[in-house]
Amino acid sequence: MERKQKGDVRMLALSALFTALIAVGAFIRVPVPMWPFTLQTLFTTMAALLLGPRYGTLACAAYMVLGLAGLPVFTGGGGPQYIFQPTFGCIVGFAAGALLAGTIVQRASRRSFRLYVAAGLADAAVVYIIGMAWFWAVKAFYLHDPIGIWTLFVTCFVPTIGVDICKAIAAAALAVRLEPVLGLYRSAAKAE
Description:
This protein is mainly α. It has helices spanning about 1-25, 40-70, 90-105, 115-140, 150-155, 160-180, 185-190, and strands at about 30, 35-40.
């Protein structure tokens, strides 16, 4: 019982660490032509791959709650009104993607770079699906500026997908290196 409590405390601390990394990652901007990107999704994907579905999702959800509570952790600030931003769907997608990616990794009998890449790409797919749907809905129903599917695709998918694939691969490479050092899945199995 005591070992399980220590494991839970350790995982909660790591979730808090990843929540902070996600917040910091929102402000680390890498300038590239057309569309600068942040390291936020690198950290959300790493949280999912390393912490599993429960604590990876917790890290992403805590980030979302902190931002909605008013802390300026989102790239455009914070506060409850942020849900009306067209890009807020990506933040919702972080938690849903972490749940899926963490579940993929947790249920695997053997963890490998390929598994981490597949889970990272699944995470990105969920973020894109929710993010693009939210973007379309806010534009159409809140801003009264509807856009077509092609415009949505060109605006939200084309400029960023290459970078997000690279970030999923980078998160997988980091997870392969960090998981044995941290021993997260081994310690979680011992705690149960």
